[in-house]
Amino acid sequence: MAQEDVFKKIVSHCKEYGFVFPSSDIYDGLAAVYDYGQNGVELKNNIKQYWWQSMVLLHSNIVGIDASIFMHPTVWKASGHVDAFNDPLIDNRDSKKRYRADNLIEDQIGKYEEKIAKEVAKAAKKFGDSFDEAKFRETNPRVLENQKKRDELHARYTEAMQGPDLEALKQIILDEGITDPISGTKNWTDVRQFNLMFSTEVGASAEATNKIYLRPETAQGIFVNFLNVQKTGRMKLPFGICQIGKAFRNEIVARQFVFRMREFEQMEMQFFCQPGTEMKWFEYWKKHRLAWHEALGMGDENYRFHDHEKLAHYANAATDIEFHMPFGFKEVEGIHSRTDFDLSQHEKFSGRQIKYFDPERNESYTPYDVETSIGVDRMFLSVMCHSYTEEQLENGSSRIVLKLPEPLAPVKCAVLPLVNKDGLPEKAREIVNSLKFHFNTHMEAKDSIGKRYRRQDAIGTPFCVTVDGDTLNDNTVTLRYRDSMKQERVPVEKLREIIEDRVSITSLLKKIDID
Predict the structure, then answer these.
(1) Domain 397-509 is classified in which CATH homologous superfamily?
(2) Is 260 annotated in some ligand binding site?
(3) Which is a Gene Ontology cellular component entry for this protein (predicted)?
(4) What is the pTM of this model?
(5) Three-class SS string for 430-449?
(6) What is the pLDDT of residue 361?
(7) 161 is in an annotated binding site
(8) Is 426 annotated in some ligand binding site?
(9) Which of 159, 341, 390, 465 could bond 314 through an S-S bridge, CB–CB 3.0 to 4.6 Å?
(10) Distance between CA 36 and CA 22 in Å, rounded?
(11) Is 289 labelled a binding residue?
């Protein structure tokens, strides 16, 4: 099945099973805005809890804050967002649709990479265990041809983005013969810049002096609170400040479901350190953050680092952690060494001294900063994409199952009375009441047991407990495992012991190597 078709099925599954709904759905929705349903919000909250605890529980020198969405407008002047927070946009005159020029070119690069991957996969299947992938990549004419095209395009694109050179970006689009996916034509306008910040007015009047912005990132709330946290928490370098919160960007070309939206949620941590030590911490956080992802068990091969060739104006090093989505490897997290840019800029624009007094060196200086920034929605999507599975069973039937990492699953355990009578619902409720204080446990009594198993598979519930007539006699139940569908008879008093450790966030935290 084509990956595009798989992605459409995932989007449909999200709506059908209460994970994600189009916003204002009864009014035909609002483009690039989504609501998380009853199962989606649980999965999303579990992701946030996993991230938060990995920061504040595993690191004694990291604390959290919750900064306001509205900030003084000069914050965004100091950060560079007012003058430089732009996307290069291009319109197709026939379809009247607008696109990001950089995304069109990146998709073209991705097509060359997909062609290479298909050749490699085909050869691997043909030659089996004797296949030498490195040699194949070095000698196969079709691979070499596509690799050359990919590398040449990548070099042109990297150079064009340095300015960015808007004319060069358009020329690349024309030279590559990139067509509009709707009209199929190459009738493109010139490329132009567009600022992504939403603005609004604060106060009783609508004068320009009262213009403020919805924050386009959460990081600046940390920087402007640096001294507040450092002094009240008596923090010593190195230390970090983290937060989870909403951010807003007027994405003209929002796409790929919740991957790119106008209202989204970020999990960011700014780690402040002595100047000169930032690269050591940059490497530390690369290792730690990759370990956080890999602990979920979604396949180490599905992650890769992508180092930035064009650095932002504030950075001296930057990399992305990319995950293999149905539409290619895409960024889910960024790790950046931001130097002392942000604190220095806020010191300059505010007129306040923002420095750290180092008692060991007996001097004051502006700390350097290493940032980790992960999109909650993108993380949600990567988990859903990896977990969605269609299986053909031995009996000829099929099932759709979400093989979610067990600690992230919305419902950890479903208790199912075999029939909705004869005292079984009451016994099932008793079991739910004994487990619900430890992990999210639901009871479901409607429909046949087979249909209920399938519904729980579809929302990713790791464990199902079936209560039957024997339960009333010997206090044992049938415990079913989601992924293997294995069933075993266990005493009711053993349920918590069997399930709890596997579904707790702690079980993930223990896998992360932070040495």
Answers:
(1) Anticodon-binding domain (3.40.50.800)
(2) yes
(3) cytoplasm
(4) 0.83
(5) HHHHHHCCCCCEEECCCCCH
(6) 92
(7) no
(8) no
(9) 341
(10) 9
(11) no
